[in-house]
Design a protein that fits this description.
Order of helices and strands: EEEEEEEHEHE
CATH topology: Thrombin, subunit H
Number of strands: 9
Number of domains: 1
CATH class: Mainly Beta
CATH architecture: Beta Barrel
Radius of gyration: 20 Å
CATH superfamily: predicted glycosyltransferase like domains
Shape: elongated
Strand order of the largest sheet: 4-5-6-9-8-7
Strand content: over 45%
């Protein structure tokens, strides 16, 4: 990834500086693609937001929620992963609830799909 900045020098010339940056992969666990309906509890809003999982791993998940959800990086949330009826009978619960911290909010699909992406680390 390259970042550039342009400035005016003392003699009136334009000077452009290009800096190369390296994105370092921080994930520790393999991800699995999983498009599954979820609900996200945001204590600050005192409500649930319905969305879907995009991918999950042992340590976290990437979740898509409506762009109206007032979620930002640093928020502590709970993700409700519903179970099928047969799995619920086997496990004794109709959902798997995971607590997590929002590490990043991506807004790149906000205008096309009316949602935002949440990178969540399970805690």
């Amino acid at each position: 990834m390259a970042l550039s900045s342009t400035s005016l020098t003392e003699n009136g010339n334009m000077d452009t500086t290009v800096m190369e940056t390296t994105v370092v992969e921080q994930r520790k666990d393999a991800r699995s693609e999983l498009a599954w309906p979820v609900s996200v509890w945001l204590p600050e809003a005192n409500r649930f937001f319905n969305g879907k999982s995009v991918n999950v791993s042992k340590g976290g998940a990437y979740i898509s929620v409506p762009m109206t959800a007032p979620i930002r990086a640093g928020h502590q949330i709970e993700i409700n992963f519903p179970r099928t009826t047969s799995l619920a009978k086997q496990k004794g619960q109709y959902a798997r609830i995971k607590s997590g911290k929002v590490l990043r909010v991506e807004r790149k699909t906000m205008f096309e799909e009316a949602n935002i992406g949440l990178a969540v680390q399970f805690v």
